[in-house]
Amino acid sequence: MDKNINQPVKWSENVIIVDAEYLDHVVFNLTVNFERMLGRRIPPADLAKWIDCVALDGGMRPGAHETQVVLIHEKNAAGLQYFAPSEYQTSLNGKAFKDQLGEFVISAVPVESMTTKNDLLLDVVSLTLPEKDVRRIMIIPNGEDEALCRQLRNQLQQADEDKHITVLAMEPIAGGNFRQEILGYSLLQALGIRADEIR
Known about the structure:
single chain; 199 residues; alpha/beta; seven-stranded mixed β-sheet; two-stranded parallel ribbon; 33% helix; disordered N terminus
């Protein structure tokens, strides 16, 4: 995907749109809390495993699917701090992996000076919503930003009925024409924290 998000883009049938810094922030908090609770070091989150969990949360099932993962990040950020792999330009941007859910192609998109991260995320969502080829959209916004959540909810009310939209956040977002999943579950999987450890 080009850095200029307004240029024509060939979208995949599935799109995952992520606020990368917010994702890192949530993983940091989970790591600190669970290291204290479990009394062991927690390694960086496995990015591919997390992406798979998000795809499953979004309703994808095994098959030869194609999915674009759009990591929206601050321009001066070199990479994710609590994931592996992590470097935007060397390890993630333009890279892909395949597994039982199909092929995942990753784009790392920096926020340019003329916009904000929230506006860029909303722009990417608005570009995917009318695309006929896009059947499924999974969005990880900054769930702590009430104004953003309100704008996103309003934007998604315009979505066609045949679009499968899932928003992942740590707390439920009131209302909206979309499914919701708790972000923490997919992150616990990616961090290697087992359910039997936290019972």
